[in-house]
Every structure is written in structure tokens, then in C-alpha cells.
Write a structure and sequence with these properties.
By secondary structure, this protein is α+β, with helices and mostly antiparallel strands. Helix content is 36%, strand content 21%. The strands form three sheets. Strands 8, 9, 10, 11, 12 and 13 form a six-stranded antiparallel β-sheet that branches. Strand 8 (181-189) and strand 9 form a beta hairpin. Mg(2+) 2 binds at residues 270, 272.
Length: 314
């Protein structure tokens, strides 16, 4: 299999707030590819330069970076310039999906369901925004992931500290109506008409708090896969997730996060274009539920690696 893929770089680490998670993801992917007989090499973009990346002369790379500089179109654009095929979405789709505000504007324009929102900055009247959206609501930085900088606000007095926390990560802050209900996620593989949803996962976190710690470092959160949903509801959740992915122009693989309210109405929250691949991660879990091993999942994602702007296939 090594001859089929050549020399493969696994880009991990990086400089974002999700560096630690990326290191776990990249390490897992690297081990899986090596187990499959692929010549894979770890490359930490947080400590090594683009010049060094060019010097490695990788035949293709697996992007296991999360957050800024790895999931936002930055590294994707650099790889296009270097003419190195890479996994996942291209520069534009990556940038759009990373910006939750732009994502929501596009979805609303396309008629896809997503919670109401407002964009806040230091001049905003926080109390007025809370009154318009209603409480409780969610305050978060629109360019971060893994629930970093996110606060659930149940009292208008908590708006200021919630805004301050989110503003540590972004100049503008996103306030979003809180959808009370079931937390779901849908892994997606493929591109365009070939994009397909894997089984829906329901996330049941302690006291409904699916934070950074519960995502990656404890075993307290339960994951139900496939989610115990009526067939028609599960199909609807999968359909809007794939539609959300396609609308942003995503490619290769990704994961859509969805809230399901008491009336079984789904609301799209975001699409991750480089989801976690750790031992606690959800894309490998959904793949396993569909009969695909972690190793096979990594190989399938790598097989789809290509340059998107130039059209060069490899």
C-alpha cells in the first residue's frame, strides 16, 4: 500500500488552542497509517516551518490539525501553492466552516435550520442582545472549536463575563439562541453527490455539559450510536447534515453538530472540516458503527487527498 500513497505526512500539533487535541489525533492517525503499511511521517506545524514542509517532499498529507492555521483554510492554501495533495476541504470551504457566523448566514440563505444569532463586539449592548435572543443563550468565539471559550448564559448579568471570555479568542463574539434538547453529531464522508452520512450519534454528557474536559479526557460522557431516534427523524438529521456540508463546499470528510428540540426539529450548529481522531472522537465511533475500522477510515480519508484549486489529482 505504501507504493500507492508514497511518502505521507501527517500534519498535527499546530498553534491553535486545540493543539493538545491535534497531537492526540495526529498520533492516532499516524499509527493507523503505519499499521496499514503506509510510509507515514508526523510533521508538527507548530514547531516546523513551511520551508521544512516543502523540503519533506510529501506525496500527500493527512491534515490532523484542529482550529486556527490548520482548519481555517490557512494550511490548505499553503498546500495548494506547494502542489501537495491533502485530505479534507479546500481553502474556501475550510475558512467558511471555521467562521460560525458566516456558516450560519449561508445556511439561513439556503433555508437550512440553525439557531437565531447576533454578532457582538465591544460596542454592543449585551443586555439588549440577551433580551432579543432570549435566555438561556450561548456565547462563543466564532473561530474556535472544542467548546473553547463557550458559555451558556442563563442570567443577563452573566453576559459580560461570557463575552469577555469569548473575546479572549476572537475580536467578534457570537451569541446564539440556546436549543434545549438532544445533542447529536453526524460524520460525513465523500464529496459532492457522493457525500454520505454515517450513523447519527447522540451525546449524553453529565448535566448536559459537553465541555472540553468531557470531550477528550473523561469517560463520564455517554455516546449512543446509532442514536435511538425514529427512523424518519434520523434520516432528516442526516439529510440536513449532508446538505449543510455540501452548501459550504466541504470535501473528503467532516462532521456536523446538530441540536434536536422537543418537537424533533433539528438545528445545525456547525460543521467541522478536520474533526477529532482521538480515542474519544466521534467520526471513528460512527465509522465503527457502520462496520469500518479506525485504520480503514484513515486510509479512506487519505485516498481522497487531492489539491482542490489546481485540479491536480493524485
Amino acid at each position: 500500500m505504501s507504493a500507492q500513497f508514497g511518502k505521507v505526512g501527517v500534519l498535527y500539533g499546530g498553534k491553535s488552542a486545540e493543539r493538545d487535541v491535534s497531537i492526540m489525533s495526529g498520533t492516532g492517525v499516524h499509527q493507523a497509517l503505519r499499521s496499514a503499511g503506509i510510509e507515514a511521517h508526523l510533521f508538527d506545524t507548530g514547531v516546523r516551518s513551511l520551508a521544512e514542509l516543502a523540503e519533506e517532499r510529501f506525496d500527500r498529507v493527512f491534515i490532523a490539525l484542529h482550529g486556527r492555521y490548520g482548519e481555517d483554510g490557512t494550511i490548505q492554501g499553503a498546500l495548494e501553492l506547494l502542489q501537495v495533495p491533502y485530505t479534507g476541504s479546500g481553502p474556501l470551504a475550510s475558512a467558511l466552516a471555521m467562521d460560525k457566523t458566516m456558516t450560519k448566514r449561508i445556511w439561513i440563505n439556503e433555508g437550512l435550520p440553525t439557531p437565531r444569532f447576533e454578532v457582538l463586539d465591544r460596542r454592543s449592548d449585551l443586555a439588549a442582545a440577551a433580551a432579543r435572543l432570549g435566555l438561556p443563550l450561548i456565547v462563543k468565539p466564532p473561530h474556535e472549536g472544542s467548546t473553547i471559550g463557550v458559555t451558556k448564559v442563563s442570567d443577563a448579568a452573566a453576559m459580560s463575563p461570557a463575552y469577555a471570555l469569548a473575546a479572549e479568542y476572537d475580536e467578534q463574539v457570537l451569541a446564539e439562541s440556546f436549543i434545549s434538547g438532544r445533542e447529536l453529531t453526524v460524520a460525513i464522508l465523500g464529496t459532492g453527490d457522493a457525500a454520505r452520512a454515517l450513523p447519527v450519534i447522540e451525546i449524553v454528557a453529565p448535566e448536559g455539559n459537553y465541555d472540553y474536559e468531557h470531550k477528550y479526557f473523561t469517560d463520564d460522557t455517554r455516546y449512543l450510536c446509532p442514536a435511538p431516534l425514529p427512523e424518519a427523524v434520523a434520516q432528516r438529521v442526516q439529510e440536513i447534515s449532508v446538505a449543510a456540508y455540501r452548501t459550504l463546499g466541504c470535501e473528503g470528510w467532516g462532521r456536523a453538530d446538530v441540536m434536536l428540540d422537543a418537537d424533533n426539529q433539528p438545528y445545525l450548529l456547525e460543521v467541522n472540516t478536520s474533526p477529532g481522531m482521538t480515542g474519544h472522537s466521534l467520526v471513528p465511533m460512527a465509522a465503527a458503527a457502520s462496520g469500518m475500522s479506525y485504520e480503514a477510515l484513515c486510509v479512506e480519508i487519505l485516498r481522497d487527498a487531492r489539491c482542490k484549486v489546481s485540479g491536480r489529482l493524485s
